[in-house]
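Q: Joint fold for the lines below.
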Amino acid sequence: MRRVAGFRQSAASRAGRRKRAAEVARAAAVPASAGRKARSGKRREAILAAALDEFSSRGFEAARLEDVARRAGVAKGTIYLYFRDKENLFQELIRTMLTPLVGTIEAMGQADVPLPVLADRIVDLFVSQVYETRRKDVVRLMISEGRRFPKLAEFYYREVLSRIIAAVRALLRRAAARGEVPEGLAEFPQIIAAPGLVAIVWSGLFERFEPLDVRKMMKTHLDLLFAQGRVP
Amino acid sequence: MRRVAGFRQSAASRAGRRKRAAEVARAAAVPASAGRKARSGKRREAILAAALDEFSSRGFEAARLEDVARRAGVAKGTIYLYFRDKENLFQELIRTMLTPLVGTIEAMGQADVPLPVLADRIVDLFVSQVYETRRKDVVRLMISEGRRFPKLAEFYYREVLSRIIAAVRALLRRAAARGEVPEGLAEFPQIIAAPGLVAIVWSGLFERFEPLDVRKMMKTHLDLLFAQGRVP
DNA sequence: AGATTATGACTGACTGGTCAGTCACAAACA
DNA sequence: TGTTTGTGACTGACCAGTCAGTCATAATCT
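A: Joint structure:
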């Protein structure tokens, strides 16, 4: 995987601060006093967090593992003790950060609550668990780079997306059976999530020109969709 | 990157293969018979088309200008006669392919047609002018790479997106005034476009696992949103 | 018209900068 | 002490962008 020369600052200008920064970061990230097991876990986490920062701001290709290492307070070679290669690091980042969310969503899909309450819950869940979180960056990364990592896209589809879709679809079907939403909606759970995705893309590209009230947009959207049942 | 006018290997030793290769490549892309003006235009187009192919399949960073050149039937250096650098090539690609669409959309925003007809028109416009077109790839590129090109995102927002949003918003306001859609919707024209964006992302990442009927999804969505007015 | 000269579009080998991944060695631990 | 964990200089491969040189075509001349 290759690089573009023009878009980064000169190597020389970065080199000066490097050593000092590494020492500071390392001390901050992993206290030398902890046991080996705990220390190892913390290192892994530190590397993943650093990787997310770097991948997010420069993109997967342009991100330098040396910068990831520095940010994690670790030497470059150390990354290779925890991850097979750059791609595997990316994979583990996605897996680690998104898999836990699935259970939460599936749980939410079980309960049959009144639609207005459901709308609020969906909005809250998205905003508090994704949008205001580093998960937003992970999702953005998946959107941006996923196409070039078919295996990763497959993993994500199988382990995350298909399960979320199934949960939402089941929920919508039950609501449709009660006549609260039209039948057609259950066929496209993607519609429910669409504004969330728009918000993530928007925040990365256009927020600075025109801020977007995510919460309000999602609420407006869901209220509109869910209002169908009220006037049969 | 600068060059010192140092020693290069003798020109004569290079000249041997040149002529044949040049003729073959050029013949494929641009007939040598055309006038200089026409020829130049075709070359530009050929390079842009090739760039779209390469950027789409490998991403901006990983795309090699040498591959773009080969695909366009042109030498690498020729690209630099038409575009300042790789980034400018990307910029021109976006500008060239998306700007013309704006007028069409603004025109559509003028007419006040019945909502069900409007829904069909929006779906048709999106599917026939974007989704089933190379513009889909351009939009995908914008989504994927736009964050790392703030100037490009700004251009795109100013010249394309803000105008589309304004047109759709005006349309929605007029519909709201007639009571055909709720007031709230006009605040978020993004909601109208959201499933289109989802479709583009989906097609790149998950189509092979679960195909998506874009037309039907968009229609379902718009019919739901626009159904509000029918039952006051 | 045909011959001659001028132009600039086009070529592609080359350079300098870049970085993922390796490995010989060092430090920390138990 | 031996084992595990960590280090960072190094290497091999990579590619954007350059520019001296070429040659098809246009312009000018006869």
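Q: Anything notable?
A: The first helix of chain A runs from residue 11 to 29. The two ends of chain A are 57 Å apart (CA to CA).
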